[in-house]
Amino acid sequence: MRLDKNNIRERIKDTMMDTLKMSFVENDKNTIEVIMPVGRHNCQTMDVLHGGATIALAETAAGVGSNLLCKDDEGCFGIQISANHISSAKIGEVVRAVGTPVHIGRSTHVWDVEVFSDSDNRLISKISVTNFVVPHRKK
């Protein structure tokens, strides 16, 4: 089944995105937005958001964004991520990943993803994600 904006919630059930409590925000911009609450389930030992969870949020935004842009017979996979963590988010905050496509080619998509704190719009991380577009394998 192809990923589209109508089946995202169903498709992420019981995946890491569900475990990390990610939700997709609908907008009419040329971006994709994903929010995630910060809690013990995605923090490191000092009660701040784990960098790995932040990267998972960014890769989810870029990956879903690319899959929504792919043709019906294509899918995509992340092949490169570069992250700069600028600030921290504490338990009780909600973070928002805003993914913007930089390059949408036939075989690669490059995304800029910025992760903000929803409480004060503070920049948490700036992440670049490259996805590789592949044909779906026949089953």
UniProtKB/TrEMBL annotation:
GO terms for molecular function: 1,4-dihydroxy-2-naphthoyl-CoA thioesterase activity. InterPro entries: HotDog_dom_sf, PAAI_dom, Thioestr_dom. GO terms for cellular component: cytosol. It comes from the Bacteria. The keyword Glycosyltransferase does not apply. CDD domains: PaaI_thioesterase. The keyword Repeat does not apply. Pfam families: 4HBT (PF03061). Keywords: Hydrolase. Residues 48-121 form the Thioesterase domain. Belongs to the thioesterase PaaI family. This is PaaI family thioesterase.
